[in-house]
Amino acid sequence: MPGRLEGKNIIVIGGTSGMGAAQVSRFVQEGAKVIAASRNVTRGQEFVNQFGSAAKYVELDVANEQGWRHLISEAEIFFEGPVHGLVNNAGVLLEMGIEETSLQAFQELVDIMQTGAFLGMKSVNPSMRRNGGGSIITVSSTAGIVGYANFFAYTTTKFAVRGMTKAAALDLAKYKIRVNSVHPGDTETPMIADKGYSADSVPLKRFAQPEEIASLVLFLLSDEAAYITGAEHIIDGGFTAQ
Predict the structure, then answer these.
(1) Rounded to two decimals, what is the model's pTM?
(2) What 3-state class would DSSP assign to 133?
(3) Any domain includes 192
(4) Number of folded domains in the chain?
């Protein structure tokens, strides 16, 4: 039985650890060819080796436009064709309120999570148009749905991604390119390891597993989600329902 992404060519940004790594593994299992992109070259090369010819690593600084051009070029060579799906996972966590946040720290998060998502959407567009359509997913956060005290820059960029998703979905619908955002609650990844966070405020009383986020992203990439675009998809154990 063919996989749900059989014949699909997918790029996963931040694809060598945490949620991105879980996505790469799942997408390969479902029949896709995958580019895993990140800044950690050593980890990236070691990670993709387990997938043989189904996956390749490409180094990327998400805030560098030329780097994105190189990535798309490398992807089309590896895929021997256009890109069908892009998942933007790149992110950093800054636990700091507005009064303590410096301009430099704020700009760093904007560069990684907002500018990076913009460049991804823009750079992959020509390839997806050659394909006759595609699916772009940006992983935001529940911090893009509700405000978080002491996470000023992080919350700001996550809300920005939500708005960018809707605007891009409207701009790209004529090319049959779908754009959606995914908003996980706290997830068991290296980003929150050793932070001491508690799941007591989550109705399901646990954090998400990266594989659970990957399942939602997989659905949005697949043809099963052909009529879904411009939407935010919350996966948080009921946290924002309260």
Answers:
(1) 0.96
(2) coil
(3) yes
(4) 1
CATH number (domain holding residue 21): 3.40.50.720
Residue type, 90: A
β-sheet bridge partners, residue 181 = 138, 232
Out of 154, 175, 197, 227, pick the active-site residue.
Answer: 154
Rounded CA-CA distance 109/161 in Å is 12
Q: CA–CA separation, 128 vs 106, rounded Å?
A: 32
Q: Does 154 qualify as catalytic in the annotation? A: yes
Distance CA 104, CA 114 (A): 15
DSSP-based three-state secondary structure for 143: helix
Q: Give domain status of residue 3, yes or no.
A: no
Q: Please indicate, yes or no, if residue 103 is contained in any of the structural domains.
A: yes
The answer for residues whose C-beta is within 8 angstroms of residue 141's C-beta and 6 or more apart is 91, 154, 158, 183, 184, 185
* Model pLDDT for residues 118-160, shown as the tens digit of each residue: 999 999 999 999 999 999 999 999 999 999 999 999 999 999 9
Contact status, residue 3 vs residue 27, Cβ threshold 8 Å = no
CA angle 18, 1, 28 (to 5 degrees): 25
Per the domain annotation, does 151 fall within a domain? yes
